[in-house]
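Bit of a strange request maybe. I'm writing a small parser for structure token strings and I need a real example to test against, not something I typed by hand. Could someone generate the tokens for this chain?
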Amino acid sequence: MAWGSQSFATFLILCPTSFFLGVLFSLFPYDYPILWTAAPSLPEAFTALENHLLTLHASPPLIPRILHIVIATGLLGFLFKLYKPSESNMLFDGASLVLYMIGIIVYVTNIVKGLRVVSSGDYGQAELVEGEVVMGANAGIDTEGVKGIGREDSLRVLSASHTILALVLVGVLVLQAGQWYAERKERQEMERTRKEKAEKGKGPIGTRAQVEKKKKF
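Reply from user aminoacidic:
Good idea to test on real output. This should exercise your parser:
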């Protein structure tokens, strides 16, 4: 892939990654009192996080659409960079894509599901796949006794998911920076080698030219 196209593809990866890190940083003031303090978490901290998540989940449909477009933009960048990949692309971009997909899985399985639980207020309900309750009832299985996690634990899981997602996205940035550094060193080494070969080639030619010039005189 040409260097200009690769730079544009890297731009498509870095912008969504940085955008999501900014979104997660905006959640850090709510997550900090719940996860990162030695003192017991106050009820007000859980209420503040819950109210913020309710606001996010109740946002207009345009907001999640923009979010999903940004996610797709990152995937498009990886698609561009991994088209006819070099060894560097396979190593750095392949690992970055794995981390990016892990982030999407955390978002879909933990964060989206957690937002739905917070919005519905069904804390402590069974963590069952859709349809299992009905199937269990039809089979004569008592599903009412199956308990899930409570309100505070659910909010802690959401906060931990934010942290996991942030670490994954930082890993993507680190791998992309490592690729840039490795390619930069490779270009510098190739340029140094080219200059050394050019200087060695000029030596004998210059000497022969000087000898022929002296013979003419």
